[in-house]
Design goal:
Elements lengths: L1 E6 L11 H8 L4 E6 L12 E2 L9 E2 L1 H11 L9 E11 L2 H8 L3 E5 L9 H7 L4 E5 L9 H12 L10 H4 L19 E2 L2 E2 L9 H19 L1 H11 L10
Parallel strand pairs: 1-2, 1-6, 5-6, 5-7
Antiparallel strand pairs: 3-4, 8-9
Bound molecules: the ligand N#Cc1ccccc1Cn1ccc2ccc(-c3cc(N)[nH]n3)cc21.
The site of ligand JEW has 17 residues, from β5.
């Protein structure tokens, strides 16, 4: 997978060279290209922002530098186009399902906005030739898109074949196929500062262990994310338009 990231703070994305994503890049599973948006400005001050039409606080990112950046990264007459991801508080939610979808793409490009956002015409211009997704990583406001890109790239990269050691572990994680939060995990020692590992996990009875883990997943989900259980209820009662099969 090729990844292009455009930002006025490309050094923010240096974290992509570390750990799992860094290993994936070094092993050729990921081909990461970082770009400074200011390379597509031509005035003395390398200006990327201006005041908002209609008034209001803050500044807006100018369209032209982004237009030139997109044209340079993915020429209109090029052999392929990336899927463009634009982090924004106003985007569709980034979910594990979307992470799996993006992990299947051969080429992703990320546009990291700053200030009060990017001129809306940039997304419209890009959508003339590539798929564009405006995506939120959560209902809170960051100062820019870079942190959101780090989150999304890590969530996507770890799904790529060969990136994590034990792909079986992906199936048991929170937000994986069964829609439940994952169960609590423990390791040695069995007793630690007055806190013991649940006896069932030391029993060697794999059936009882599997049952306990499922019960813990359901308990945790009910306690922390009842909305996920509500989705389960809709599926089981056929309210979600399926025949009750996930
Ligand atoms: N846009 C905007 C905006 C609008 C109002 C106030 C502050 C900002 C800052 N900002 C500029 C770029 C940008 C990118 C992504 C996020 C972002 C994503 C999630 N999930 N939260 N915040 C914020 C971003």
């Amino acid at each position: 997978m090729r990844l292009d990231v455009v930002s006025i703070f490309p050094e923010y994305l240096a974290a992509l060279d570390v750990s799992l994503v860094g290993k994936a890049a070094k092993s050729g599973l990921l081909d990461v290209h970082l770009h400074d948006l200011r390379d597509w400005t031509h005035d003395r001050h390398r200006t990327v922002d201006d005041t908002p039409y209609g008034g209001g606080a803050g500044m807006v990112m100018k369209a032209e530098p982004w237009g030139q950046a997109l044209d340079a990264l993915a020429p209109v007459d090029g052999p392929a186009q990336p899927r463009l991801i634009v982090p924004t508080p106003a985007g569709r939610p980034f979910t594990q399902a979307l992470a799996y979808e993006l992990a299947a793409e051969p080429w992703l490009a990320f546009a990291c906005g700053r200030y009060e956002g990017i001129d809306a015409r940039v997304a419209s211009y890009a959508a003339e030739r590539m798929r564009v997704d405006e995506v939120s990583i959560g209902d809170y406001v960051l100062n820019g898109g870079e942190v959101a890109v780090l989150v999304m790239v890590e969530a996507v990269a770890r799904l790529l074949p060969g990136v994590i050691g034990n792909p079986e572990s992906l199936a048991e994680e929170s937000h994986s196929g069964d829609g439940l939060l994952e169960y609590p995990v423990y390791t040695k020692p069995p007793a630690w500062r007055g806190h013991d590992v649940p006896e069932v996990l030391l029993s060697g009875n794999h059936g009882l262990i599997a049952d306990w883990r499922h019960e813990e997943s359901v308990r945790r989900t009910a306690e922390r994310r009842p909305d996920l259980l509500a989705a389960w209820g809709d599926v089981l009662s056929g309210q979600d338009g399926t025949d009750g099969v996930r």
